[in-house]
């Protein structure tokens, strides 16, 4: 199953990478996560996170709903998602009540925490009241990951029979809303390059004299939500537009396989050539690997593979990632940013656990130093950036912690999660919700509870301590934390590539637990078979690693990766992974 053409380069790359990292960094705790002591801790911590979520959610409903986000200190609201098209019309700004952003962002978290009653109440309200026919200029990227992603994911959860909505018949209202929104996105793609404008007015399309400047993430992180919308509606326009933009963006890479941070969508020229894995670029990388998992297209895998190698070669410095010029590969800014903390989570997807672990430790070191992660930290001077000193309740460190725990089952990651929970409660909890931190050196607060605190921060912390939602299911989480199922009907490589005789299946609850999405790598799921009602998952090709923590002595201890259906091998650090093909 190996790609023979890549084998030699891959071996050399991995050999160098592993020589650079001390094996002591990967030592797993000898305490088993199945120990009753840890089970009790998981229960306690999951309840604590649930309380945090509801403190944020209830306060939003009381003081801010249906506006976009809560201002927890003044107990008021902000319509942060969009700018009103004509601010001079006083009466219009009074009429506008926002897009219920935090409610939409909370939908999948409600299901994951098992509150189907509240989920249904929210679905009903949105079905009856939400409209996108408003004169509001929104950022395409933000609206896509938060609103479109939130609606598409919630639609799938609402139609999943395990969630049993009881109050009224669900008539695909969320999908209709998502489709309406998707149509309002399409004018943004009407450029000479196919790269979308960063801003679009929901009622009137792209405004006259709209800026042509956008970011790499803005063009390259649309494929999951718009692809899913196309698969659900049968209208291919959304996926085609997102794919065209992604391909164009990829064609603009340098000979080093690096991309810049900002570009002009009309000329297709780069505006900012320096880039890294943080702001303006982060989710571009994330979506290449996740799109491969969700849709099974080799094209995404090939892009990711080249991009990943470029990052590791030109941005990485030990456990840190700096910025570099896409044309020369020369280092530009030596800064750690809070957004970069998602990267170890992406590395877990390709089995690069060792590198993930070492970076994660550095992010956590900085977290502990300040109590939270500063937005920007100057690596050379070991100090916080003079102006970007804030922490707006970002989820990235919790997200990586969750993925690393799933991959290794090392209870140390639960300790990290507990520390994050404690800091959030100690520094950011106020009577009216959770506030952002304006300055991590003084812990002065700022009056803003971002919706991603409910969509991501609380969700990943909850899943770290209670992953029962994932049992027997295969999900990819979008960059905003909204789950999308990995389905054979959406997966290009199925059914042609794999023979049913290679499949593994789960006939019992116990087995289904062992093949849960994260711990076993994600496998394309075959829809439930009515003749075998107890069969929870059938994966296409997956073979479990011999040990649950993915440690190994030889290749024999490693299985077949369910995501790529490629053979996993044992690295010199003693972890099973896709070492040879990168
Ligand atoms: C979220 O909106 C998403 O995770 C996005 O990709 C970037 N960061 C914010 C949260 O920090």
Topology:
Blueprint: H1 7-20, H2 36-63, E1 69-71, E2 76-78, E3 82-84, H3 90-95, H4 101-112, H5 116-129, E4 136-139, H6 140-158, H7 173-185, E5 199-201, E6 213-215, H8 216-220, H9 223-233, H10 237-251, E7 262-264, E8 270-272, E9 274-275, H11 282-295, H12 298-314, E10 316-317, E11 320-321, E12 324-325, E13 335-337, H13 343-349, H14 353-370, E14 376-378, E15 383-384, H15 396-408, H16 412-428, E16 429-430, E17 433-434, E18 436-439, E19 444-446, H17 452-465, E20 475-477, E21 483-485, E22 504-506, H18 509-514, E23 537-539, E24 569-570, E25 576-577
Antiparallel strand pairs: 1-2, 3-4, 4-5, 6-7, 7-8, 9-12, 10-11, 13-14, 14-15, 16-17, 18-19, 20-21, 22-23, 24-25
Strand content: 5-15%
Helix content: 40-55%
Gross geometry = globular
Low-confidence stretches: 1-31, 495-540
Instruction: Please report the distance between the alpha carbons of the first and last residues.
Output: 13 Å
Largest sheet at a glance?
Answer: 3 strands, antiparallel
Q: Helix segment count?
A: 18
Radius of gyration: 23 Å
Bound molecules: 1-deoxymannojirimycin
Mean pLDDT: 84
Number of DSSP strand runs: 25
Strand order of the largest sheet: 3-4-5
| Helix vs. strand class | alpha+beta
Active site: 142 (proton donor), 282, 375 (proton donor), 396
Main location: endoplasmic reticulum
InterPro entries: 6hp_glycosidase-like_sf, EDEM1/2/3, Glyco_hydro_47, Seven-hairpin_glycosidases
Family: Belongs to the glycosyl hydrolase 47 family.
């Amino acid at each position: 199953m190996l790609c023979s053409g890549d084998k030699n380069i891959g071996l050399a790359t991995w050999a160098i990478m592993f020589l650079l990292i001390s094996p002591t960094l990967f030592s797993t705790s000898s305490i088993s996560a199945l120990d009753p002591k840890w089970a009790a801790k998981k229960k306690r911590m999951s309840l604590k996170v649930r309380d945090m979520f509801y403190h944020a959610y209830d306060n939003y409903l009381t003081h801010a709903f249906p506006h976009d986000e809560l201002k927890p200190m003044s107990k008021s609201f902000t319509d942060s998602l969009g700018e009103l098209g004509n601010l001079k019309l006083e009466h219009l700004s009074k009429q506008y009540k926002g897009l219920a952003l935090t409610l939409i962002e909370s939908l999948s978290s409600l299901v994951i925490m098992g509150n189907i009653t509240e989920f249904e109440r929210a679905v009903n309200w949105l079905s009856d009241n939400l409209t996108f026919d408003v004169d509001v200029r929104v950022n395409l990227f933000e609206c896509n990951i938060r609103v479109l992603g939130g609606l598409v994911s919630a639609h799938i959860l609402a139609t999943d029979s395990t969630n049993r909505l009881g109050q009224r018949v669900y008539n695909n209202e969320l999908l209709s809303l998502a489709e309406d929104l998707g149509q309002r996105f399409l004018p943004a793609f009407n450029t000479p390059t196919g790269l979308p404008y960063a801003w679009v007015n929901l009622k009137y399309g792209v405004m006259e004299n709209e800026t042509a400047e956008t970011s790499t993430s803005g063009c390259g992180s649309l494929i999951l939500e718009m692809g899913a919308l196309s698969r659900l509606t049968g209208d291919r326009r959304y996926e085609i537009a997102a794919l065209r933009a992604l391909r164009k963006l990829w064609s603009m890479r340098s000979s080093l396989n690096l991309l810049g941070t900002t570009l002009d969508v009309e000329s297709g020229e780069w505006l900012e050539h320096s880039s890294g894995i943080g702001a303006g670029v982060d989710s571009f990388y994330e979506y290449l690997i996740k799109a491969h998992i969700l849709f099974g297209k080799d094209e995404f895998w090939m892009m990711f593979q080249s991009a990943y190698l470029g990052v590791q070669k030109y941005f990485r410095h030990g456990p840190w990632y700096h910025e570099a010029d896409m044309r020369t590969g020369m280092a530009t800014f030596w800064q750690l940013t809070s957004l970069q903390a998602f990267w170890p989570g992406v590395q877990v997807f390709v089995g690069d656990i060792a590198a993930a672990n070492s970076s994660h430790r550095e992010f956590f070191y900085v977290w502990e130093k300040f109590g939270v992660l500063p937005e920007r930290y100057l690596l050379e001077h070991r100090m916080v950036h003079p102006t970007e000193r804030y922490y707006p309740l970002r989820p990235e460190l919790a997200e990586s912690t969750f993925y690393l725990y799933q991959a290794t089952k090392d209870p140390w990651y639960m300790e990290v999660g507990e520390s994050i929970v404690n800091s959030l409660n100690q520094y950011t909890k106020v009577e009216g919700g959770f506030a952002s931190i304006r300055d991590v050196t003084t812990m002065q607060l700022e009056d803003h509870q971002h919706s991603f605190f409910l969509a991501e921060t609380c969700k990943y912390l909850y899943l770290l301590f209670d992953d029962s939602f994932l049992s027997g299911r295969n999900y990819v989480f979008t960059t905003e934390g909204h789950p999308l199922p990995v389905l054979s009907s959406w997966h290009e490589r199925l059914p042609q590539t794999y023979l049913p005789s290679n499949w593994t299946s789960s006939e019992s609850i116990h087995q289904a637990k062992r093949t849960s999405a994260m711990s076993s790598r994600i496998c394309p799921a075959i829809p439930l078979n009515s003749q075998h009602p107890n069969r929870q998952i059938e994966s296409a090709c997956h073979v479990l690693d011999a040990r649950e923590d993915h440690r190994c002595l030889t290749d024999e201890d490693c299985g077949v990766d369910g995501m790529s259906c490629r053979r996993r091998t044992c690295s010199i650090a003693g972890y099973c992974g896709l070492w040879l093909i990168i």
